[in-house]
Amino acid sequence: MAQVVVIGAGIAGSLLASRLAGRHRVTVIERASRNVPLPVLDRGRPAGLDEHAGCGPGGSSYLWHNGLIQLEDEDFSGWPITAADLSPYMEAAHRALSGVAIDSVQQVEAELRAAFADAGVAPRLTGHSLYYPSHRRNLWKSEDVAAKPVTRVTGRVEKLLLDDGGRALAAVLAGRAEPVRGDVFVLTAGGLGSPQVLAASGLGPLAGRFYHDHPVGFVAEVTLNADINRIWNRYDRRLKGSLRLPLVMRTARQKFAFYFRPAGPTALKAKSVLSELRNKPFDPRLYVRLLTHTNDIVEAISLKAGINIPTRRFVLYMCAEQVPQTNVAIGAEGETVTRDWVLDEDFRAAAGNAIAGVLAELAPLVERQTVFPTWFDDLATAAHHSGTCRMAATPQDGVCDGEARVFGTKNIYVCDGSLIPAAGYANTGLTIGALALRLTEMLNA
Ligand SMILES: Cc1cc2nc3c(=O)[nH]c(=O)nc-3n(C[C@H](O)[C@H](O)[C@H](O)COP(=O)(O)OP(=O)(O)OC[C@H]3O[C@@H](n4cnc5c(N)ncnc54)[C@H](O)[C@@H]3O)c2cc1C
Both 438 and 315 in a single domain? Predict the structure, then answer.
């Protein structure tokens, strides 16, 4: 039985604490005692999403939409492990994050793919499905960590203290004289938090580099001659949730997923208000905005009541893969995290081509189309903060090895979004869950 210190209580931290408890003496150090936004200063491109990282029990999973989607096998080409290595943990993570088996989702996905083909959308265009459970989970609560034999410490970890042999001895907290000692340290402070702690500890010379997110936004409106009313969002009783199938455009470097969303009577709304409304239900300004966002109302009715209002007008919502940034994107200013998000001209050109490409593929189904002139400026963060302590085959290419251990150290692991080298067009929550369950098994062995 080892003393395991888990730093951060997000998806990964909650799962690790929950599943290691009993087998080890577990201490979780989380910077906030209740759910509050993580203070983030966007130095580069603005996030476009207010509150894009969580803090407190559950971390960002108290803010998230809980959309679960699997990586494609080829996305692992930049990883030091294979899709098969992670596959069993994907299944277990899907259950932990939603209560639903991944097989059940795949069955409905096959039905949906066939329905898209019937509507005239070639199966080669459709990607992996995105599944939204009806009720989102805060992992700290759903794992019931508070009821388990886990010691909880509230505070911000500034750095780790190491001996000369690359072994961490203790975590130093801001404003606290007494460090927290342990045998094994797992950084689960998120894509914005973990690189900071490593950098302050003099570890992982590449920590904070290779940042990538998923730029998201509405890019075009189409009027269709095909009927996709029942399939743009498929509510399924067996799944107790909704399934969406993206159309995927691929280049050698990156992928672009496009989801249909109903345009609603007033249409041409480049920014959704649903996300903010979900996390700030008592803000009256958001309800005023919602009145003009009829597309959001139509979408909410489909998600919550399973009723798809008939329409032929849809907007295309893009979720783009970002080639990892080369600069050190993540830093700190006192207690505030700084993020330098860059979408360069190469990205703009590739995304522009992908938009043109998907519209060309859809041309036989489209009566009218408009690409939103401001689509690039309107792109926002998906809050999939990734890559900043990425796994790699060598220390020249990343921060952690294939077992998630920080190169050159004996007992320091990273397990959160920062570990993900490449995410294709897939939201990262499910992958983070799978990585956490894999590390749990390694530490429990
Ligand atoms: C509005 C919104 C919607 C989203 N929707 C989806 C979705 O549909 N599907 C999906 O897959 N993903 C979604 N995401 C992203 C998803 O929530 C995150 O990718 C995921 O929760 C990250 O988990 P994590 O464990 O890596 O880190 P986090 O959840 O960010 O947890 C890190 C924790 O570490 C703590 N911490 C940080 N630094 C320190 C420190 N120095 N000391 C101590 N504690 C520290 C933080 O307070 C936080 O609690 C969404 C995010 C947002 C904001």
Answer: no
